[in-house]
Amino acid sequence: MPSTMTQKQPAPADVTHYENFPVASFLCPPQLRPAIAAIYHFARTADDLADEGDANTPQRLAELGRYRADLHAVVAGQPHSNTWAQVFEPLAGVIHRFKLPVNLLNDLLDAFEQDIRYTAEQRHYATDDELLDYCTRSANPVGRLLLHLYGITDAASLTQSDQICSALQLINFWQDVSVDVARGRWYPSQQTMAQFGVKEADLQASSHAENARLLIASYASNARSRMLKGSQLACRIPGRAGWELRLVVQGGLRILDKIEALHFATWQVRPKLGAWDIPVMVWRALRMRAS
Questions:
Q1: Quick one: CATH architecture of 30-287?
Q2: Mean pLDDT of the chain
Q3: pLDDT of residue 172
Q4: If 7 and its partner were Cys, which of 16, 221, 225, 241 is the partner (CB 3.0–4.6 Å)?
């Protein structure tokens, strides 16, 4: 269902923070396209405030605070600041028409604020549990918002959606090690790096450390397991939405295949999907069956 998570939006392929957020794609139910696009643009704009440009940490946090205030204003039916009218004008209608769970939109903003502080203050997550806690706010709300639009609210579906969304976020991390390390972002936790005997130098582009391969291999295996646990949701959602989710799932799994093909050395090369991967993903999506 994301991430999945907030970069460019390709045909169902490359996995970054929100690349797998299905933004009004041809498979999306037409009546839901404006609502999905409005939610996407809310998340995309907030991510840009947190991550783009030359603003310093206090400036980014202040801007996100103003953005959150506009969200609270439209929820209350009050005027917003007009700074992001292209976001909040359509979002206001969607919030009220579909009775969106606003706590999920706030969770996304919490995650963006955490990203800003994380980059400025700590560099590493201490444990994998802390990293997964971040995913509950950065990725899982996306899937839950989409399920809400589809009218799916049962606990089993929400749990499976969380598995898919967390998996997509984690796949993004292990795909982007070379990019993130260069920017001073370290998503492998201190706990797991110590378990595998990996130092920061082992994840630099010039490294050929075998223990770093084992680290990424372990993380990739965990992400695959999470994705497979959630994948049955795609077989239970009827119609076009279910087919779109199948492609999202297969896009994530295909990236994991690419990571494995690189012998897990994603601190050297960022794997990505191309047009030639789409037939593979479509074939695998057609073969998915409900258990």
A1: Orthogonal Bundle (1.10)
A2: 89
A3: 94
A4: 16
